[in-house]
Specification:
The chain is 26% helix and 29% strand. It has helices at 27-35, 54-59, 74-86, 134-140, 147-157, 173-182, 233-239; strands at residues 3-8, 11-19, 45-48, 67-71, 93-97, 112-117, 158-169, 185-194, 203-210, 217-223. The protein is α/β, with parallel strands linked by helices. The chain is globular, with a radius of gyration of 17 Å. It has a single domain (3-239), classed as Vaccinia Virus protein VP39 (Rossmann fold, 3-Layer(aba) Sandwich), CATH 3.40.50.
Length: 245
């Protein structure tokens, strides 16, 4: 298996192994992990579509809560388990092979207080430009799971007043918000992500409470690059690049 090991961005305390047969972890995963905010009522976290485990690995630097990650691809689950082991995090991080659409076969209802997901962003259309490798196609397009499937799984596994953290594309925002409301989620916090200050937002981070009260806080936007095409200071801080100096 073509596996490479390196530090998780500027985090010199965390290493991550990745397999080139699968997509590497993305900026979106790290921004989502940074966006996560621990609540007093939280006792456990579930990461859906965890891949090699970048979100749980990053979260381990922010919280001591137990974190479980699931993925449909067995090889990625093995890689995530290995990542937990090489970082001495096996007591905190648990990874399982599971289909999000059959989550009721793996977990009891309302068994987590927090759920995170960096989902496949793109719907399937006849004209969809698909990656020729199925292992990578599953990670970008709604081949194995749709947003609706994800919401049904989150609704099942999340406790009342539990918190759902996600990232998605701006062009699907109207659909995302409508579906959240339909499934009993109240959108509580949102942040737009822009490639640059002068560019339109391409994605947004969201925090929703299951069976929560309405009331949305719009956080100031996050700009990824500056005018010189370098990461902004805020993104460098999220990546812990300043710590690495």
């Amino acid at each position: 298996m073509p596996v490479e090991t390196h530090y998780l961005l500027g985090l010199k305390t965390i290493k991550i192994q990745q397999d080139s047969d699968y997509l590497p972890f993305s900026l979106d995963s790290i921004l989502l992990a940074d966006f996560f905010t621990e609540k007093k009522r939280m006792q456990s976290i579930l990461d859906l579509g965890t891949g090699a485990g970048p979100i749980p690995l990053y979260l381990s630097t922010k919280t001591t809560l137990p974190i479980t990650g699931i993925d449909i691809q067995p090889a990625l689950v093995e890689l995530a388990q290995s990542n937990a082991k090489i970082n001495a995090l096996s007591q905190q991080l648990t990874f399982k092979q599971a289909d999000i659409k059959s989550i009721q076969d793996v977990f009891e209802a309302q068994s987590f207080e927090a759920v995170t997901v960096n989902p496949p962003f793109f719907k399937m259309h006849e004209q969809s430009p698909l990656n020729t490798q199925e292992t990578k196609r599953i990670m970008r397009h709604e081949v194995a799971v749709t947003w609706e499937d994800i919401l049904k799984a989150v609704k099942y596994v999340l406790a009342n007043q539990g918190t759902f953290f996600f990232i998605h594309r701006v062009e699907r925002m109207s659909e995302i918000i409508t579906s959240l409301t339909a499934h009993g989620f109240a959108l509580k916090r949102m942040r737009f992500v822009h490639p640059k200050a002068q560019k339109n937002a391409t994605s947004f981070l969201g925090e929703a409470t299951f069976q929560g009260q309405p009331g949305l806080t719009l956080i100031p936007p996050l700009y990824v690059h500056d005018d010189d095409d370098q990461y902004t200071q805020e993104v460098r801080k999220i990546f812990h690049y300043e710590d690495a100096k």
